[in-house]
Design brief:
- The complex is a heterodimer of chains A (478) and B (394).
- By secondary structure, chain A is α+β, with helices and mostly antiparallel strands.
- Helix content of chain A is 33%, strand content 18%.
- Chain A has 16 helices and 17 strands.
- Chain A has a 12-stranded mixed β-sheet. In chain A, strands 3-4-17 form a 3-stranded mixed β-sheet.
- In chain A, a hairpin with a 4-residue loop joins strand 15 (317-322) and strand 16 (327-332).
- The two termini of chain A are 39 Å apart.
- The radius of gyration of chain B is 26 Å and the shape is elongated.
- Chain B starts with a helix and ends in a 9-residue tail after the last helix.
- The chains are: A alpha+beta (478), B alpha+beta (394).
- Chains A and B meet through helix 3, strand 3, strand 7, strand 12 and helix 13 of A and helix 5, helix 6, helix 7 and helix 13 of B.
- Chain A: This is GDP-L-galactose phosphorylase 1.
- Chain A: It comes from Citrus sinensis.
- Chain B: InterPro entries: PAC, PAS, PAS-assoc_C, PAS-like_dom_sf.
- Chain B: Pfam families: PAS_9.
- Chain B: One of its GO terms (cellular component) is nucleus.
């Protein structure tokens, strides 16, 4: 049985048509000639600004390990930041947006967390809702549907690539090198906030909406390069309210903390590559927080591996990249499934809030004045609680994630790591370890203590054992 | 940079008599004082105790922002909490991991409080006290951090339960330390979290009180009084310190005009504007921009500007303006309405560029793009900062 929901998709480009129109246009092979799009018909000779970022291997700290690092002067608005803001304002003045988002009333809801509510009547169209399949997180790219090669070039702000020579480079007008598979940043013509853009990795390759290591790293680089903790990136998988099945991340400016960023966390584990993984506490949606890492790549790979695991297990999820890429939130969800099964109350459905990454983070865009005026922390909490996986399901999903990360860690780790925990796990208390295996870690490869001993040099086992201890400890304190 | 040092000196001289430095130097505590109205929200004073604790010299600290003491293991969420307290102009007390000059991390109790102008209610300075945490306490409850070393001891702690904490904690701490030394080949072992003791909290509170009373005393002598709590509500045209901090990051020459006040005065002028026109801040804030115009300024252009403001549209004009020293320059002026969170216009922003200046900055952003990026940054700042409840009323 296929699960579907109906919703009016958000219009992100001035060239996005209704599904029936798109299909008809595709059938007639009118794919945008003379419209100045990104397809083969128009892209020859097209030029866009190009921002080439510096690939940083270690996280920059203003303090070196022994204070030898050259002290950087006070960062003014970073260059990438200026580029995004300037180009966006330019499109505002050229009238490319469907409405002025800064004219939309918005406020922080009084309460402990400070959820942010916005009254935006212009964002949603009074059009016929489209059907979306919500039970498959991985779906193949469909060229007949709207995708980002169909946007107008004026909606694209700049290309975003890694620089060849390790220095930041900017070319105000660079030809789009089709061979090089450029990644671009485009505007969202129905913005949620000022500066709402879409990062589309390797746009001409027409990748479906699914995370891979390279794309996620690109997104992290963008967050780090912008250097602004209020410029956050977000990702919605299919089934978690992505409406366009063409790989993209979103970003915008909000100079306030998101409620999710304020939630306390409890550390679960540190991986071999120094990534700290915690769980969110006291927040309506259950999720994981990733921080640290010996390098940006390490952090990126750990999160990507987790996302890929969820995708492959058909679990819809959202990702929030916050704090200049230093804190990443991963939130599996099940709202769409509930909606398709008719399990969501009509009261919640009437608000027409589709809980994607921004809503889950605490930023609610409301289309009815009544909902805006009555918005309360309680209501927000109640809605988001429906989005969360149940505690049981969440623990199962976590186990899958940790297993995937451990595998990834192992594959990356050259040096075998010795962990005191392993030494203690050697049997003598063989029965104990056995119990851990069977009860708390269904994903463990094999249930015998001997197996652990054999692999005791690997990072995989180190991480899984630490995870098991964490679970055991949690179980015993409650 | 010279002008920044000048501003830093003025930061104190405007409010307090010169003896304040000596009086503050007599206090034994470790503390820093920052000024949010200076671009970059820099440290304007660092106590002897702070220099001793951190290993830095005064020259290395004055003019820098407090984030210079953060490092890879500083808790990101705690940093966010501090940033938000600054933005909301309220005091805060947190446990924070900082780094000394030689790179050693250390835990301290970070207590920050504000100093307000008595008459105008503005936040003039932030005072931050740092009390190193000497007692090593492990978090027992939900802050349970599993560190890589003490697998065995952890199990033992858990098995015993939390009630025996008082009895066995010392021996367990020793055990942990021994295990840490054994297994630790990464060098310095530092906990993921730390809690200050009541004694340390009292020390911090006393230090804040002492500093505030010194500052209050020395402000009486200049007549520009300060106090530890906001005594009066800020008046019209009030720009919060958080808006100052945000606007201070924008390097272009621009001003903010308040169209709701009589004669539409300038309520904010950037450092670059002052540099371009040669005026001091106190000469221009509160005045209408017409002082920039002169005999040869085209009146049709002035009319165009007025019309744009009236119809709430953005516009770009080329206008002849005059500096304080009466010299003139062609100004590529871009004006845009700026809305706040209510959706209504709060200000007009006017961004200036002197014609003939280098057409591109060193990165290659065109003049136009730079002006627009300033507008964008102003829009984000004004909108976001007006979403919340506003500055605390305490």
């Amino acid at each position: 049985m296929m699960l579907r929901i109906k919703r009016v998709p958000t219009v992100v480009s001035n060239y996005q048509k209704e599904e029936t129109e798109e299909a008809a246009a595709a059938a007639r092979r009118v794919s945008g000639c003379g419209r100045n799009c990104l397809n083969k018909c128009c892209i020859q000779g097209a030029k866009l600004p190009l921002y080439a970022f510096k690939r940083v291997n270690k996280f920059k700290t203003e303090m070196g390990v022994h204070g030898h690092e050259v002290r950087e002067p006070e960062p003014p608005v970073a260059f990438l930041d200026s580029l995004v803001l300037g180009e966006w304002e330019d499109r505002v003045q050229r009238g490319l947006f469907r409405y002025d988002v800064t004219a939309c009333e918005t406020r922080v809801i009084p309460g402990q967390y400070g959820f942010i509510a916005q009254l935006n009547e212009g964002r949603h169209l009074k059009k016929r809702p489209t059907e979306f399949r919500v039970d498959k997180v991985l779906q193949p790219f469909d060229g007949n549907k709207f995708n980002f090669t169909k946007v107008g070039q004026e909606e694209v702000l700049f290309q975003f690539e890694a620089s060849e020579d390790g220095e930041v480079q900017f070319h105000p007008s660079a030809p789009i090198d089709v061979e090089n598979s450029p990644s671009v940043v485009a505007i969202n013509v129905s913005p949620i906030e000022y500066g709402h853009v879409l990062l589309i990795p390797r746009v001409l390759e027409c990748l479906p909406q699914r995370i891979d290591r390279d794309s996620f790293l690109l997104a992290l680089y963008m967050a780090a390069e912008a250097g602004n903790p209020y410029f956050r990136l977000g990702y919605n998988s299919l089934g978690a309210f992505a409406t366009i099945n063409h790989l993209h991340f979103q970003a915008y400016y909000m100079a306030l903390p998101f409620p999710i960023e304020k939630a306390p966390t409890k550390k679960i584990i540190s991986t071999g590559s120094g990534v700290k993984i915690s769980e969110l506490l006291n927040y309506p949606v259950r999720g994981l927080v990733f921080e640290g890492g010996n390098s940006l790549e390490d952090l990126s790979n750990t999160v990507s591996d987790a996302c890929i695991c969820l995708q492959e297990n058909n679990i819809p999820y959202n990702v929030l990249i916050a704090d200049c890429g230093k804190r990443i939130f991963l939130l599996p969800q099940c709202y769409a499934e509930k909606q398709a099964l008719g399990e969501v109350s009509s009261e919640l459905l009437d608000t027409q809030v589709n809980p994607a990454v921004w809503e889950i983070s605490g930023h609610m865009v409301l289309k009815r004045k009544k909902d805006y005026e009555e918005a309360s922390e309680e209501n927000a909490w109640r809605l988001l609680a429906e989005v969360s996986l149940s505690e049981e399901r969440y623990q199962e999903v976590n186990a899958l994630i940790f297993e995937a990360i451990a595998r990834g860690d192992d594959a990356n780790g050259g040096v075998a790591e010795s962990v005191i925990g392993e030494a203690d796990a050697k049997p003598k208390s063989g029965g104990e370890v056995d119990a851990i295996n069977k009860n708390s870690c269904p994903a463990m490869v094999s249930g015998t203590p001997e197996c652990l001993v054999l692999h005791s040099g690997s990072r995989y086992c180190g991480l899984m054992i630490r995870y098991c201890f964490y679970k055991l400890a949690s179980a015993m304190t409650y | 940079m010279d002008s920044q040092l000048g501003l830093i000196e003025q930061s104190f001289n405007n409010r307090y008599t010169l003896w304040v430095h000596e009086a503050l130097d007599e206090l034994p505590d470790s503390f820093t004082i920052t000024d949010p109205s200076i671009s970059g929200h820099p440290i304007v004073f660092a106590s002897r105790g702070f220099l001793k604790m951190s290993g830095f010299s005064r020259a290395e600290i004055i003019g820098r922002n407090g984030r210079m003491f953060q490092g890879p293991r500083t808790n990101r969420r705690t940093i966010m909490e501090i940033r938000e307290a600054i933005r909301e102009e309220r005091p805060i007390e947190v446990n924070l991991l900082n780094y000394k000059k030689d790179g050693t991390p250390f835990w301290m109790l970070f207590k920050m409080s504000l100093v307000f102008g008595k008459e105008d209610g503005r936040a003039t300075h932030f005072v931050a006290v740092q009390v190193p945490i000497v007692s090593r306490k492990h978090m027992r409850n939900s802050g349970m951090s599993y560190s890589e070393d003490g697998g065995g001891s952890r199990l033992r702690e858990i098995v015993f339960g939390s009630c025996r904490r008082e009895v066995c904690s010392d021996s367990l701490l020793d055990l942990d330390r021994v295990l840490a030394l054994d297994s630790d080949d990464t060098g310095l072992e530092i906990e993921d979290s730390c809690e200050a003791s009541d004694l340390e909290k009292r020390k911090a509170a006393t230090a804040i009180d002492n500093i505030l009373s010194v500052l209050t005393h020395y402000s009486q002598l200049t007549g520009r009084l300060v106090c530890g709590k906001r005594c009066s509500l800020p008046g019209m045209g009030f720009i919060s310190s958080s808006l100052y901090i945000s606007l201070g990051r924008i390097k272009q020459s621009f001003v903010l005009i308040d169209p709701h006040l009589p004669d539409m005065p300038m309520v904010y002028a950037s450092d670059a504007f002052l540099k371009l026109t040669g005026y001091d801040r106190n000469e221009v804030v509160g005045q209408n921009c017409r002082f920039l115009n002169g005999v040869d300024t085209d009146t049709t252009v002035l009319y165009q500007i007025k019309e744009s403001i009236r119809t709430e549209q953005a516009c770009t004009v080329r206008i002849l303006n005059y500096r304080k020293d009466k010299s003139s320059f062609w100004n590529l002026l871009h004006i845009s309405p700026i809305r706040n969170a209510s959706g209504k216009i709060a200000y007009f922003a006017a961004v200036h560029t002197e014609e003939g200046c280098r057409n591109q900055d060193r990165h290659g952003l065109s003049l136009e793009m730079r002006q627009l990026s300033a507008i964008g940054a102003i829009k984000v700042a004004v909108r976001s900062l007006s979403m919340g409840a506003g500055p605390s009323k305490s």
